[in-house]
Amino acid sequence: MNVTDPISDMLTRIRNAIISGHPNVAMPSSKIKAEIARIMQEEGYISDFDLVDGKVSGSKILRIQLKYVGERRERQPVITGLERVSRPGRRIYSGKQEIPYVLSGMGISIISTSKGVMTGQRARQLGVGGEVLCKVW
Q: pTM above 0.85?
């Protein structure tokens, strides 16, 4: 199946898995999806991620272990919200001065810059802007 916006598809799969209470979620992999998963793991929003070989097509599959807090019956997901900012129909670019804060610093924005994919805070430190991919809180 051909998806026109793979990052939005990734975020939707994560959102649906969290709503259903699944421990993990799998999706077709790409370099940018793996970088987004790496950032989410570094920031503590997911437990782990790994790339495995697909059984049918031979392509890579990205598996993400979701993170929950609390006991089994009362567990709450660490990720409370995901939002796609830039999309294929409307790209959103931000200069180093206009990088958005998410919930006054309680969440992260993930930005694709000329120096790679990074959080908004790291982009501010390096003094670079770029395309705002998504927000996580």
A: yes
